[in-house]
Give the backbone structure.
Amino acid sequence: MICRSPIDGSVIGEVREASPQKIADAIDRAQQAALQWRLVPAPQRGHLVRRIAEIVRQRKSELAKIITLEVGKIPSEAEGEVQEWIDICDFAVGLSRQLHGLTIASERPNHRMMEQWHPLGIVGIITAFNFPMAVWAWNAMLALVCGDSIIWKPSEKGALCARAAHAVLEEAGAPPGLLQLIQGGREGGMQLAESEHIPLVSATGSVAMGKQVAQAVSKRLGRSLLELGGNNAAILAPSADLKLALPAIVFSAAGTAGQRCTTLRRLIVQESILPEVTDRLCEAYSRLPIGDPRQPGVLVGPLIDERAWLNMKAALDSVAVLQGGDRVTENVPAGGFYVRPAIAKVAGNIDLVCEETFAPILYVMGYREIEEAIRLQNGVRQGLSSAIFTNDAREAEQFISPSGSDCGIANINIGTSGAEIGGAFGGEKETGGGRESGSDAWKSYMRRATNTINYGRDLPLAQGVRFEI
C-alpha cells in the first residue's frame, strides 16, 4: 500500500496490507493478551501508559513532523495533536486508580449490593485520516488502563502516522499481542466489526462508514462506539463581542483546511449584523496564508487529496460564493490540492447545507429571533458540535438548556473545534452517539457487574417473595 503526502503528492512510504488470515491471527493474539492483562492491577496498567507518555513527550516534535508530512497539518496543529496523546495518557494514569463502582443499599437485611467494573476484552479501533494519532490515543490509552487489549485499523491515509505511534508502544515495552496494528482498507475494518471475539468496535469517520460498522456489530449484538459526521453550526447574536467571535469563527471554519469533524460549517447570524459580519469575515479570509504547511506563517495547508477538492468544487457550484472556493496553484507545491477557504451565503438549511462536505466551506445564513436560530442549528441530521456567541445570559442559558442545542458539544463564546480531553467527546443523531476521551467515557471500555452479598444466616427474597421448600 503506497503512502503519499498531500503536500505535493510524493510517495513517502509503503506499508503491507494485512490479509484476512493475518487479521484473524491478530484477533487470536489479542484474546490471549486480554486474558493476562485483565489480571494486572489497574494502577500497574497505568504504569505502561505513563511510560508511553514519557516517550511521546520526548518524541513530540518528530511525531508532529510525520503528521504534517502525511496529512498536511500545520506544525502547531500537528504538535497539538501529539499533545492530546500526552494529555489523555495523563488522564488515563490518574483514572487507573479511580475505576470505581458503587455500594447500593439493599432492601434485604444482612445483605450488601455493589457494582464492579471489569475489563471488556478486545477493543477494535478504526480511525480516520484527520486525527491520525489523537483519536486512536483517546480510545487506546483508556482501554489499556481498563484492562483491554487493542487492535487498530487506521485510515490508509494515515498509515505512517500509525506505524510511528506503534513504534512508541514497542519502545514502552507493551506485552506481546496487547496493542496490535493492522493496515489496509475497508475490508480490514469490517473484519473487526464482524468478529464475535471483539466486544467493542470504536469507529471514527463518515456517516456511511459508521452505519456499515454499526450494522455489522449489532448483527452479532456487540457494542459500537461511533464518532461520525459533524455539520456544526454557530449562532452569532447581536450582543456578541465580534473581536472575540471572528477569530474563533475563522479558526473553526478554516483551520485544518476544514477537515475536522468539529469544523464550523454553518454560521447563523442575526440579520441586523449580517452585512457587517459577512464583510469582516470575507476580509479576514482574504488574508489567510495558504501553502506548504511546513513553511513559517502558513495557516491553511492542503486538502487530503483530489477527491476532497472535487467534492468541495461540486458543493460550491450551486451556491453564491462570497469569498474563496478556488484552487490555489501559485506559490504552492505542485501535486498538492490547495484551496482558498470559501464563504457562501445561503437561505437557511437548503439540501446542500444539510450534507456535510469535508472541506473549508462556511455557509452563512440569517435569523431574526433566537428560537429560529436554534431551529436552524438543530435542523440537520448530524449533532456533534455547536456554539453561540452572545453576551445575553438568557440566550446563553437557553442554548445549553433542554430546548437548546441538540449536539453532544454546546459551547458559549468559543468556537466549535478544539475540545479538551477532560470532557466526554461525541455527538447525537447521525454523529453516532458515542463518547470518547474524558469524563466517564471509560465506562464504554468495561463491563458492569452488580453483586449482592448475603452475610446473614437467612435467605429473604427481594420484593417480599416467599418460596418455602
Observations:
- The mean pLDDT is 97.
- Residues 75-95 form the longest helix (21 residues).
- The chain has 14 helices and 23 strands.
